[in-house]
Model the fold of this input.
Amino acid sequence: MLQPLLSVINNPVTIGSLPHIIPILLAVAFAVLFIRFSKQKLALLQQQKTIHLFACLVSLIVFSYHLFLIAKGTYNFRTDLPLYLCSLLALVCPIFTHYRSYWMFEILLFWIIGGTLQGVITPDISGGFPSFDYFRYWTVHLGLLIIIFYFIFVFKMKPRLKSVFKSFFALQVYVVIMMILNYLLNANYFYLNQKPKSASLLDYFGDWPYYILIGQLIVIPLFLLIYLPFKLRNRMNNLK
Done:
């Protein structure tokens, strides 16, 4: 009976495996309870403090993981800097949850749902369960999604059509910065020089540099698809 559980220990995380599915199910259950409790039981100031503390916890996990690698003496500036999109967003989110700036919401909404969700569907984890990297990966990716949905459902924040293009422009700035850093460090942050080794959507976009070009072409349609439910909800409200 324990054999299926023992077989996943220290093994790579594959799509559809228990180490892939279980964290997602737990996060969905937690998110529903967390958001419902906050809406029904907490005053506005308590809601603001609660999500800020949650974001700080997610950020602390990232910070602790990098300290862990440094302490092990295995830290590599070419691969380990928190410059991948999700790690970077985890460090930025406490600023967002503190100030709750709308312009940050406009950018983070599309980056998190469009980018982080892809990381949830096709995980790229160097260490399997129960490694620190495994827990860091799921805490960051699922935590970011919980934060942005908290702002949508608890604070009732929603994007506008021009938010799509603001987020796209901000992404181009990030890509240019990563290209410069990749050149200086001979690195592969944001997978601009090589696709991830694990299965991902980029596998369907051809080899370098075609997967980058195709990825850029589908960003705005993807962001528009994310915006569509908000647009439809506004239209339905206007018809009432």
The chain is about 70% helix and 0% strand. Residues 3-239 form one domain. The two ends are 54 Å apart (CA to CA).
